TrEMBL record:
Gene3D superfamilies: 3.40.50.2300. The lineage of its organism: Archaea, Methanobacteriati, Methanobacteriota, Stenosarchaea group, Methanomicrobia. GO terms for biological process: phosphorelay signal transduction system. PANTHER family: RESPONSE REGULATORY DOMAIN-CONTAINING PROTEIN (PTHR44591:SF3), STRESS RESPONSE REGULATOR PROTEIN 1 (PTHR44591). Residues 1-63, 72-120 form the Response regulatory domain. SUPFAM superfamilies: CheY-like. This is Response regulator receiver domain-containing protein. Keywords: Phosphoprotein. InterPro entries: Bact_response_regulator, CheY-like_superfamily, Sig_transdc_resp-reg_receiver. The keyword Cell membrane does not apply. The keyword Phosphoprotein applies.
Amino acid sequence: MMPGQDGWNVLDKLKKDSHTRDIPVIITSILDKGKIDSMWAVEDYFVKPLDKTDLIETLERVRKSMKPEETTILVIDDEEKDRELIHSMLDSEGFGILDASGGKEAIEIIQKKQPDISTV
Protein backbone atom coordinates (compact mmCIF):
# COMPACT_ATOMS: atom_id res chain seq x y z
CA MET A 1 0.00 0.00 0.00
CA MET A 2 3.07 2.29 -0.08
CA PRO A 3 3.22 4.92 -2.83
CA GLY A 4 5.50 4.14 -5.76
CA GLN A 5 6.34 0.59 -4.68
CA ASP A 6 4.23 -1.38 -2.28
CA GLY A 7 5.59 -3.78 0.32
CA TRP A 8 4.95 -6.78 -1.91
CA ASN A 9 7.18 -5.32 -4.64
CA VAL A 10 9.90 -4.63 -2.09
CA LEU A 11 9.58 -8.17 -0.73
CA ASP A 12 9.76 -9.56 -4.25
CA LYS A 13 12.96 -7.60 -5.00
CA LEU A 14 14.56 -8.59 -1.69
CA LYS A 15 13.86 -12.29 -2.17
CA LYS A 16 15.02 -12.36 -5.80
CA ASP A 17 18.36 -10.67 -5.05
CA SER A 18 21.10 -13.10 -4.00
CA HIS A 19 22.55 -10.51 -1.59
CA THR A 20 19.30 -9.95 0.30
CA ARG A 21 17.21 -13.10 -0.13
CA ASP A 22 18.19 -14.45 3.27
CA ILE A 23 17.15 -11.34 5.22
CA PRO A 24 14.24 -12.40 7.44
CA VAL A 25 11.12 -10.34 6.70
CA ILE A 26 8.25 -9.51 9.03
CA ILE A 27 5.17 -8.05 7.38
CA THR A 28 3.02 -5.45 9.11
CA SER A 29 -0.12 -4.55 7.23
CA ILE A 30 -3.60 -3.15 7.51
CA LEU A 31 -4.76 -6.15 5.47
CA ASP A 32 -5.85 -9.38 7.14
CA LYS A 33 -3.31 -12.16 6.64
CA GLY A 34 -6.05 -14.51 5.46
CA LYS A 35 -6.61 -12.25 2.46
CA ILE A 36 -2.94 -12.20 1.42
CA ASP A 37 -1.31 -14.83 -0.74
CA SER A 38 2.46 -14.38 -0.67
CA MET A 39 4.77 -16.45 -2.80
CA TRP A 40 7.64 -15.65 -0.41
CA ALA A 41 8.07 -17.08 3.05
CA VAL A 42 8.10 -14.48 5.82
CA GLU A 43 9.04 -14.81 9.49
CA ASP A 44 5.72 -13.47 10.71
CA TYR A 45 2.75 -11.38 9.70
CA PHE A 46 1.05 -8.77 11.87
CA VAL A 47 -2.14 -6.85 11.24
CA LYS A 48 -1.92 -3.25 12.46
CA PRO A 49 -2.14 -2.04 15.14
CA LEU A 50 0.93 -3.94 16.30
CA ASP A 51 1.16 -5.69 19.63
CA LYS A 52 4.57 -4.94 21.15
CA THR A 53 4.86 -8.27 22.97
CA ASP A 54 4.14 -10.31 19.85
CA LEU A 55 6.54 -8.24 17.73
CA ILE A 56 9.36 -8.53 20.29
CA GLU A 57 8.82 -12.30 20.62
CA THR A 58 9.13 -12.73 16.86
CA LEU A 59 12.23 -10.51 16.68
CA GLU A 60 13.88 -12.38 19.55
CA ARG A 61 13.14 -15.73 17.86
CA VAL A 62 14.71 -14.47 14.64
CA ARG A 63 17.65 -12.88 16.45
CA LYS A 64 18.54 -16.19 18.15
CA SER A 65 19.46 -17.63 14.77
CA MET A 66 21.80 -14.70 14.02
CA LYS A 67 25.07 -13.31 15.26
CA PRO A 68 24.93 -12.16 18.90
CA GLU A 69 25.94 -8.53 18.37
CA GLU A 70 23.40 -5.82 17.63
CA THR A 71 20.68 -6.84 15.19
CA THR A 72 19.76 -4.14 12.66
CA ILE A 73 16.13 -3.87 11.54
CA LEU A 74 15.01 -1.98 8.44
CA VAL A 75 11.55 -0.54 9.08
CA ILE A 76 9.72 0.24 5.83
CA ASP A 77 6.46 2.15 6.10
CA ASP A 78 5.07 5.17 4.31
CA GLU A 79 3.42 6.37 7.52
CA GLU A 80 5.90 8.21 9.72
CA LYS A 81 3.75 7.64 12.81
CA ASP A 82 3.86 3.88 12.21
CA ARG A 83 7.66 3.94 11.90
CA GLU A 84 7.83 5.99 15.10
CA LEU A 85 5.59 3.46 16.86
CA ILE A 86 7.93 0.61 15.92
CA HIS A 87 10.89 2.71 17.12
CA SER A 88 9.18 3.26 20.48
CA MET A 89 8.61 -0.49 20.80
CA LEU A 90 12.21 -1.41 19.97
CA ASP A 91 14.27 1.43 21.48
CA SER A 92 14.92 -0.39 24.76
CA GLU A 93 15.30 -3.85 23.21
CA GLY A 94 18.84 -3.51 21.79
CA PHE A 95 18.00 -3.41 18.09
CA GLY A 96 19.59 -1.01 15.63
CA ILE A 97 16.95 0.61 13.44
CA LEU A 98 17.09 1.90 9.87
CA ASP A 99 14.09 3.73 8.39
CA ALA A 100 12.62 3.84 4.90
CA SER A 101 9.46 5.69 3.93
CA GLY A 102 8.89 3.54 0.87
CA GLY A 103 10.15 0.79 -1.36
CA LYS A 104 12.58 2.87 -3.44
CA GLU A 105 14.23 4.29 -0.33
CA ALA A 106 14.40 0.80 1.22
CA ILE A 107 16.25 -0.57 -1.80
CA GLU A 108 18.70 2.37 -1.66
CA ILE A 109 19.36 1.76 2.04
CA ILE A 110 19.89 -1.96 1.52
CA GLN A 111 22.48 -1.24 -1.17
CA LYS A 112 24.50 0.74 1.41
CA LYS A 113 23.89 -1.21 4.62
CA GLN A 114 22.29 -4.62 4.67
CA PRO A 115 19.93 -5.06 7.64
CA ASP A 116 19.60 -8.31 9.56
CA ILE A 117 15.77 -8.16 9.59
CA SER A 118 13.25 -6.14 7.60
CA THR A 119 9.70 -5.14 8.45
CA VAL A 120 7.59 -4.29 5.45
